[in-house]
Design brief:
There is one protein chain. By secondary structure, this protein is an alpha+beta fold. The chain has 5 helices and 13 strands. A 6-stranded mixed β-barrel has the order 1-3-2-6-5-4. Strands 10-7-9-12 form a 4-stranded mixed beta sheet, with no helix packed on it. A 3-stranded antiparallel beta sheet has the order 8-13-11, with no helix packed on it. A hairpin with a 5-residue loop joins strand 4 and strand 5. It starts with a strand and ends with a helix.
Length: 208
């Protein structure tokens, strides 16, 4: 059993009729995958938000649909209303706890880089998540990236440098750089940049 639970109810409303559901504080959703036929369901919007803040898209949730046995699911995707910034639809993916799966896990940047703080460099990140393979029970909400390892401008962190939980492996090229620190621009470089910007034609001139 997962420590994260969410209650759901079956639904028959589809299309525009789901607007009535949303007005009642519910979110139409679907659940599909291992151990279940595709089902149309609803979940409480506020409860879902609380669960998402804890689980993200890479932690197992026990989803109880009506009175049935809970399904082990991941939040596969969700849609937002572009005007209200409100969750309007969710896809849940049911998984087999005995089989390894691939999932995208968020990278959490923690600590402080001496190359930034003491040397005035700029932090350069190339990615914010990583694809991993593991049993569902081994998945985590996020993986920490320790910035304190970046002490000079020559230091970089690659996927291979990540400290992964036991039972989890990275899918793909582990030699890819996650983060580095660029040197601050010299006075000469700043002056050259200012000169280029001053010589660039104004937008009105280009349009003309």
């Amino acid at each position: 059993m997962s420590e994260i639970t969410l209650q759901a109810q079956t639904r028959t409303q589809k299309g525009r009729k789901t607007n009535v559901i949303r007005a009642e504080g519910l979110v139409p959703a679907v659940v599909y995958g291992a151990g279940t036929d595709p089902q149309s369901i609803t979940v409480d919007r506020q409860q879902f938000i609380k669960v998402y803040r804890t689980a993200g898209e890479s932690s197992i949730i026990d989803l109880s649909v009506a009175d049935a046995k809970p399904l082990h699911v991941l939040i596969h995707d969700y849609d937002l209303d572009p005007l209200r910034d409100e969750v309007i639809h969710i896809d849940f993916r049911s998984v087999d706890m005995d089989k390894e799966i691939e999932a995208v896990v968020t990278l959490e940047f923690v600590g402080e880089s001496a190359a930034v703080k003491a040397l005035g460099g700029t932090l350069m990140t190339s990615r914010e998540n990583v694809l991993v393979r593991a049993l569902p029970s081994k998945l985590v909400r996020s993986i920490d990236v320790d910035l304190s390892q970046l002490e000079t401008f020559d230091d970089v962190m690659r996927l291979s440098d990540l400290s992964l939980p036991e039972g989890m492996e990275i899918v793909g090229d582990t030699n890819l750089t996650i983060i580095s620190v660029s040197k601050p621009r010299t006075q000469a470089e700043m002056e050259a940049l200012d000169e280029v910007e001053s010589e660039a034609p104004a937008a009105e001139e280009v349009a003309a």
